[in-house]
Amino acid sequence: MVIVGWIIVACSARWPRRNKSPRYRYKVEVKMLSVEEVVRSNLCLGCGACANLPEVTMKLNERGFARPSRPQVAQSAPQPELEAICSGYSVEQDAVDRPYDDVWGPILDIWTGNSTDAEVRYRGSSGGVLSQIAIDLIESKAVDFVVHTQADPDEPLGNVTSPSFDRKGILAGAGSRYAPSSPLAKLNVYLETGKKFVFIGKPCDVVALRRMARIDPRIDLQVPYMLSFFCAGVPSRFGALAVLKKLEVEAAEVSKFEFRGRGWPGLTRATRFDGSEATMDYNSSWGTVLSRNLQFRCKICPDGTGEFADIVCADAWYGKDGYPDFAERDGRSLVIVRTARGQALLADLTHKGRVELEPLRVGEIELMQPYQRDRKRAVLARLGALVAGRRKLPNYRNLRLSALTWRSNPLWLLKNALGTFRRLPSTPPGS
What we know:
single chain; alpha+beta; Aspartate Aminotransferase, domain 2; 8-stranded mixed β-sheet; 3-stranded antiparallel β-sheet
């Protein structure tokens, strides 16, 4: 059955395209979805976009993922706006005015570099470039505040999305947070201020925000910059608890929990109320614990590289033999500029001396980010597993998935399809 499903998807992917450079047009199909249907189909990413619709709120479910919730009386009622904004259900690339790399998306410039501010570089996840951009936008008064995700002050393992208005607030939220977050859940609150802000979120968050902008003109007026980072998936809350278990630390003892930061890649740190710390290196925490607790939709994600952002950053790992070594060093960011607006912004920061950058060839990205290279190539094969399992498929368009499938090893694709089929979650799930 899985082989049949894989063949269906792979063959459709390999059908010759009439136009190798299509002029993409955005179109919303007339389909009535409900949040319950998206969740039940394992397509929810937990971004929180739907929480701006009537009666929808975000909560952690029994599996430790952020999911929308509605009163019992409203459940299963379709919501016309949901299909237009849900990035879990639909990802469509409609950019035609920029060079597009099949793996890495729209690219105007590629750099490696870092903030020239030593504290920003040290506190950030890699070279501190995203934090430096946010700080400069605030200090230059280009925006009034920054919307970003940081540790929940009332629950150290969890996340909260909130505005920051100065350097101190931005640095307090610096560093990766490998736990569920719903940064769009309060978007209406930020828009109702009438003020301008920069948004920093996961790739799927930015996809949803771009989609929301098509039906809410306030977004383009008030959110001049959308920034993102490479994302390998969202771990469940139970991932962080599993890290604590390995550290032999009780959750009730933790006053502060850092997934990484304070160095590159930085240590995972659990700080107890008595001030003592338990630590774990990045490769152990992410590689052996957190990455094994990802939500299903992330495993079939076609955009882990922030294709819809103005500027996206990632770890510019050093390594050899095609795999990063994760040794502690001064932080270095991979910076991909995707829009003219982002290009002008980064040029201004460079002119001011806020960041130092070196150009990078596109072929070198995969040496730093081999996981992301393989992830997008495997998407259609993994969707074949959903076909075989009679599951609902997401709507992916104009992301060059067919071209990547055509150039990939069929046996490798089949292995991905079989692996996904074996791991298909039960239906109906809460995941």
